[in-house]
UniProtKB/TrEMBL annotation:
Residues 175-215 form the F-box domain. PANTHER family: F-BOX PROTEIN SKIP22 (PTHR47602:SF2). InterPro entries: F-box-like_dom_sf (IPR036047), F-box_dom (IPR001810). It comes from the Eukaryota. This is F-box domain-containing protein.
Length: 279
């Protein structure tokens, strides 16, 4: 499978598009997106009464009454394998009158809670466009912002708390950093190392496929990056120019005179002209 296709498959928009069913009410899309972020981060749905794994969401009959929160539990797969699951993460999701969704999360036996307020009017219409495959590049960023916010402010800190409480394996040190810090580290790496980092995990594939990151790499490499070019093409341009460089080097080594491409600048010009295509 092509690496770009693999990155797209594991990106937040693709993941969420696959679970935002046509039958879902637009007001429920934000809740489904939060739930899926937890699941794709290595947690599993958990029924604290039966002690078994559960899939999907069950909305209360009174939903979306502001007085009736949606309660969802999660745990780690290695904790679920134990006979007695004494600790888990509990999320309480409540809609409030001003069009926001308030999500509170904690370990089941903890009094300390984390809170996250999401603007339903901001995110729900974007998710509706996503499930109908009508989302443009600018709005796509909102999907990434939603995923990043839920991951950094709820999923990661609660997962670390659960791992420490149960003795489960903690996430690797690098993976425990926030998405913001990971992005800053990626900005310091050469383009080849960024591409290698994309193979580490699905989360790193998401971070390493960011268009602004590859635009920065392009500008550092060639000293300019036109604002009129779609940000989604920067990685492809770098890959294409890298392949042209390889062709030039090999032809020079073979002392071939059939193609006189004399410089990287000319390779960039060819790539920008649209005369060369790559996948």
């Amino acid at each position: 499978m092509d690496k770009d296709m693999a990155c797209e498959r594991f990106s937040p928009p693709s993941i969420l598009r696959s679970v935002l069913g046509d039958e879902s009410d637009i007001l429920d899309l934000l809740i489904i997106a939060v739930h899926e972020t937890f699941l794709k981060s290595g947690l599993v749905g958990f029924d604290s009464v039966s002690g078994t794994r559960v899939n999907g969401l069950q909305f209360p009959e009174e939903w979306p009454s502001s007085a009736t929160p949606l309660s969802v539990s999660y745990t780690l797969p290695e904790v679920l394998d134990k006979e007695d699951v004494s600790e888990s993460i509990v999320l309480n999701i409540r809609r409030v009158i001003n069009g926001c969704v308030v999500v509170s999360g904690s370990l089941i036996e903890s009094r300390s809670k984390l809170y996250l307020t999401l603007d339903q009017n901001r995110f729900a219409p974007v998710l509706d466009l996503l499930r109908r495959n009508c989302l443009d590049e600018d709005k796509m960023r909102e999907v990434y912002n939603l995923w990043k916010t839920v991951k950094d402010q709820l999923v990661l800190p609660l997962s670390i708390q659960l791992s420490e409480k149960t003795g489960a394996t903690l996430p690797p040190c690098f993976m425990r950093l926030s998405s913001y810090l990971k992005r800053k580290i990626l900005e310091l790496l050469p383009a080849t190392d960024v591409a290698r980092m994309a193979c580490v995990s699905s989360e790193m594939q998401i971070l390493c496929s960011n268009g602004d990151l590859w635009k920065q790499r392009y500008a550092e490499e060639f000293g300019y990056a036109s604002e009129t070019q779609s940000c989604g093409n920067w990685k492809n341009r770098l890959v294409g120019i890298g392949r042209l460089r390889t062709i030039i080097r090999r032809r020079r080594q073979d002392q071939s005179r059939t193609c006189r491409i004399s410089s990287t600048r000319e390779a960039v010009s060819l790539a920008n002209s649209g005369l060369l295509f790559w996948h």
